[in-house]
Every structure is written in structure tokens, then in C-alpha cells.
Specification:
The complex is a heterodimer of chains A (469) and B (264).
Chain A (H helix, E strand, L loop, with lengths): L32 H11 L3 H16 L36 H9 L2 H8 L2 E6 L2 E7 L1 H5 L3 E4 H5 L5 H7 L10 H9 L4 E5 L9 E6 L6 E2 L2 E6 L4 E9 L7 E3 L2 E6 L4 E9 L4 E4 L1 E6 L4 E8 L4 E4 L2 E4 L5 E10 L4 E10 L5 E10 L4 E10 L6 E11 L5 E10 L4 E10 L3 H9 L4 H12 L1 H4 L4 H11 L9
Parallel strand pairs in A: 1-5, 4-7, 5-8, 6-9, 7-10, 8-11, 9-12, 10-13, 11-14, 12-15, 13-16, 14-17, 15-18, 16-18, 17-19, 18-20, 19-21, 20-22, 21-23
Antiparallel strand pairs in A: 1-2, 3-4
Chain B lengths: L1 E3 L15 E3 L4 E7 L4 E8 L3 E7 L4 E8 L3 E9 L4 E8 L3 E10 L5 E10 L4 E10 L5 E10 L4 E10 L6 E11 L5 E10 L4 E10 L3 H9 L4 H17 L5 H11 L7
Parallel strand pairs in B: 3-5, 4-6, 5-7, 6-8, 7-9, 8-10, 9-11, 10-12, 11-13, 12-14, 13-15, 14-16
Antiparallel strand pairs in B: 1-2
The chains are: A alpha/beta (469), B mainly beta (264).
Amino acid sequence: MKEKTQVADVDRAFYDFRYDEDEKNFLDSGITPDIIREISAEKGDPEWMTEFRLHSLDVYSRLKMPQWGPDISGLDMDRIVAYLRPQKRMQSDWNSVPDDIRETFEKLGIPQAERESLAGVGAQYDSELVYHNVRKEVAESGVVYTDLESAMHDEHYAELIKTHFMKLVPPTDHKFAALHGAVWSGGSFVYVPAGVRLDIPLQSYFRLNARGAGQFEHTLIIVEENAYLHFIEGCSAPKYYEASLHAGCVELYVGKNSTLRYSTIENWSKNMYNLNTKRATVAEGGKVEWVSGSFGSHVSYLYPMSILNGRGARAEFTGITFAGEGQNLDTGAKIVHNAPETSSYMNTRSISKSGGISTFRSSVVVNENAVGSKSAVSCESLMLDSISRSDTIPAMVIKTDKADVGHEARIGRISDEAVFYLMSRGLDENSAKALIVSGFAENVSKELPLEYAAEMNNLINIEMKGSIG
Amino acid sequence: MSGLNILPLPTFARLGVNFVERDAAFETEKISVPAGTERQIIQFVETDSETSVTIAENAKLKLVQVFTGRCASVLKTAVADNAQFGLIQLYLGGDTVSEIITGLNGYKAAFAASIGYDLGAVGALDLNLVVNHYGRKSTSEITANGVLRGNAQKTFKGTIDFKNGASGSKGSEKEDVILLDESVVNKTVPVILCAEEDVEGSHGATIGRIDEKHIYYMRSRGIPEDKIYEMITCARLARLIGRIGDEEAKKRIYSILGWGDEDE
């Protein structure tokens, strides 16, 4: 009897540890004006931000839940705790971080990565940043990497924050953007001055430890002209039986002739609703590069959006999604060509197994003024059994005759011919299939720094077993 | 107003592709192709119509539909074991909403659709094609080729849906659109839904201008640029019209297009 080749689910045991929380640090669950005012007071918001939060709450209460995409009826907003007070203020020395939190990040390898391969690190635990540090030489180059709250109170950056915060993703964008505007907390602010190239990456890591809570960090990055930045975002949480919510927001401003690479390895636990919004605007000659690995969460809605506003602006999106048992991951990207001679390229892979549902959803919009623009979309899906689902829903809207847009997609299983070829070269069947599945994910792993590619491969944790006959 | 042409799995609402608001008063027609027989039917669709087709085991149907004016059309077809359904559709202007739902219910049921459109001036087309693969080793092949001119607006939604149990099935979908004027709007949504491991599905789309190399070649042969566009448009439709066996129907189509007999 032939045994089916097995590809393991993502092994999350490495991320699935937790520490007890002191419940006196929890604000009440639910989203009400009183809670919003309390969050604002706890954080010492300037007046405009308090008003912004209350306005966002008003928008949130008026907007409907999304009428498309995976079911999120299991998310009871009345039971979500939007804010947890920090045990201690943000530190720039790991030894000053509370022991349990420091141990958490040490287990996740963040301090080690900082020493070996990063220009700066931010670490968020539940609602607030607990650690932020940037190398001296990086700071001396004029790069600012700090938490958003500190920047908002710094006279040098306060106005910059006010003019950029939730301008790319306004609260009216959708219900969870409005929620974010009301309850956001934590996240990073990065400012790269004109002409500065940061050759080693910055990383922010977001850890949600508390049961039944939400995490709503806001990442705001401004890269001025002729600059370069690679920013890495990581996230994880231990598994609980109650639903958790991640409704973060990322806003990226890429200046003229600059490049921003934004890499994410997302490994939320399987009780998480990941309703995240990411958006970039790219100026003339600039480029945004998204590298995205989606492995965790119970339900995801995630479509990083690139708005190409300057002549010759470019966007690349490279992504992989692995949906296993109990997961419904709806991922993809959105691109808007809004200027002449812009170009975009989307290259994605998805894997479904053990009843997991993976949906690739994208949109490419080429507006009337985007003459001479080009776009190409390529997506491939691999089905590893027949109890899973894999859906592909790309959309292209073209409003000019002077553009070239191409799309291709394939769906299937592991090719018998490819297995046969590899076996004819001396591999056994299991090794051949393992190699094919690893290769399938290579579009993303080759785009990541070595350490993170290794982490991603660890996440996929492919195990093959079986026999022929 | 009611919703027509509903995308089987809705997507971002702002794109305006999930459904069409349209009132329609459908005239209904039923077509049955008995087991083991072969039929060819040619329809010129000019009013709102709903056609239900049943193709029995080992039967073949070639259905040609030509759309010339403002109308809404629904075509629902069930294809049984080893039966074949060949569909040719031509959209030649007007304001058309067209839905094609094909159920490949039987073992080795096959569907091949060839669609051509030439939307000039203010033509509008919303086309929603859905192929449901239920039967094992069922096959579908969809090709759409068209040209948009003037203020034409076109939405093509093509869905290949591999249901659980449709093992060994294959489906492919390809659209090639040429945009000839700056005011055109093209929307393309090629969808694959898959609940079966042992299938092969693919879709592709190319949207945009005529390849510059082709234009260069033809200009180097002394053909003016506006004539080149006309020739390429005609060639695309002529290829499809050539597959319609009926000479009377072909003449009628040429007449609608304003082509003389020499264009044959």
C-alpha cells in the first residue's frame, strides 16, 4: 500500500511559550470612547492624537465588516483587550528589560541577531515597545530609529509624525484601519535622511504574550531622496484558545531614487486574527520591495499595497504563504500605477495542506496617467492533499492604452515527472519530493538575509516520509 | 435592479467587479443534446435571454452565439460523461452582460470556449464565465481575444473551479486584450478555485499594446499605422469567425462588422 508523502505543518513549538501577565495591567475589554480616552491618557498623547483616536472610533462604529474574504465571525470585539500597561518604560539596554520579557526575546534570538547582523532593534511586548536601540554609527549618520510615541513628543519629529501618520492608510480605508486609528500603540518610527544608505537592516519584533488581547502597533518609515533601507519585521505569539487580534498598520514613504526593502516573517499563533494593513507610496525613480512570509495565524487578511506616484517608480512583491490545519490565509498584494513609466512585479507561492485554505488575492490598477507602465504578476500554488483549498483571485484594472500588463498563474500538485527525474539522478522518492517543496519556497528564501532564510526554512520544517509501492 | 454576473468568490469591493447591477427580462430556452448525437446551433442574441443546455453522454454540441446589441444573457450548461461542449462567442458592440456557467459533471466531460470581442465607440461588456469541474478527468480550455476602442469598457471574469473529487482534471484560461484608445477601461479577473489535489490549472492574461516589433515590421512593408491596427483587429475576429461552419451566419457577421466579402 502506498503511503502518502507527508509534509509537516509549520512547527510552532519554538514560539509557543508564554509568561503569566499581571491582570491589573489590562484595560477593560471592548472598544468604547472611555477606553480610547484611557489609552490616550496612559500614553500621554498630544491633543490632536486624542482627537484623532476618537474620530477613528466614530468611523469604526459606522463601517461594516468586510463583505469578502475569510470568515471572521469568531472575532468578538467586546472580548478583546486593546491595551496593556507596560511593566516598565522602554529601555535601550537588554539588562534593564524585565526578566521574563528579556528571556522571551532571548529565546526568539533577537539580542543575538542584534549583535551579529542588525543596525538596530526594536522589540515590542504586548502593547508597548520594551527595547529600542540603534548602533552609534547609524545614529550618527542621521538615521532615526525609535518608537513612534517618543518621536511624536520630540520637537524635531512631532510635525513630521502629524503630517504623515495615517495619511496613507486613513481610518476610512476599512473597519480595521479605523480600529487601528483608535487604539494603536507601539511600533517604530524610522527616518533615513537624504543620501544615506543603510547597508545592514533594522529589525522590529512584535510579540503578543497576553491572552485575549490585541496588538495594534504602527510602523512609520520615511526614506528621503537617494537613500536605502532594509527593514525586517518579525512577529509571533503563544497559542491560546481565545481569539487574539493583530490589526497593525505600516506606512512607508519612499523618496525620489530611494529603495526600501520591507521583509516580514509572520508566525502568529493559530488563534490569531491577523488583519494587518501595509502601504507604501513611492516617489520618482524610487523602489519598494516587499518580501513576505505568512506562516501563522488562524485567519489572515494581508495585502501590502504599493502606490507608484512618481515617474519611473517601481514595486516588487515576493511572497510565500503556508496554510496548514485550521488556517485560512488570504494574502497577496495591491499595486496602483499612478505615474508614467512605472513598473511592478509580483511573484508569489502558496502551499495548502491538512485542511488549510490559502487564497492569493491581488489587484493591479493602472490609472489613466500611468502611460508607458508595465506590470507582471506570477503566482503558483501547491496542493498537498484534497482536504485543503487553494484559490487564486487576481484582478487587473487598466485605464490607459499605453501600458503592458501580464499575468500568469498555475495550480497543481508535486509533478510526477519532476520526482521521476530526480529519482533517476539517485534521490529516493521522499528526498525528491522534499527537494521540490523546498525549491518551491525559494522565491522568498533567496530574498532574505541568510539568518532569516534559515529561520524561514526552519518554519517550513519539511519532513518527508513514505514509501513507494 | 438585481445583481448579475456574480463573481463566485468576491474580491476587493473597490474594483467594482463582484457583480453587475442590471434589470433583465429573460426569455428562456432549453436545448437538449441526446446521448451519442452531435449538434451545431447558431444564435444571434439581441434580447435578454437565458438558455439552459443539457448535453448527454457521448454527445457533442457546438454553440455559436453572436451578440450585437444591448442585452443580458445567461447560458447554463450541464455536460455529462464523455460529452463535449464547444462554445464560440462573438461580442460586436452594444452594452452586453453575459454569464456562462458550465458544469462539467461527467467523467471526461470537456468544454472549450473561444471568445472574441471588438468593442468600439461606447461599447460595454461584462462577461462572467464559470466552469465547475465535478467530473473526474474533465477538461476546460478558455481563450478570449479582443480589442477595445474609443470609450469601450470591458470586464472579463473567468473562473475555473475544481471541485473536490474532480481528480485528473485540467483547466486553462487565457485572455489577450489589445487596447487601442486612451479612454478604454479593461478589467480582467482570471480566477482559479481548487479543492482537489490531483488537478492542473493555469491562467494567463496579456493586456496592452500591439507588440512594437509587429508594428515596425508592418510599417517597414509600407502599411500605414492606422491600417495596421485595423488589420490586426480583423485578423483576430476573422480567425474565430472562420471556425463557424455556416456560411450564411458568417455573411451575416461580416455584414454587422461592415466587412465586404473580400474580408473573408
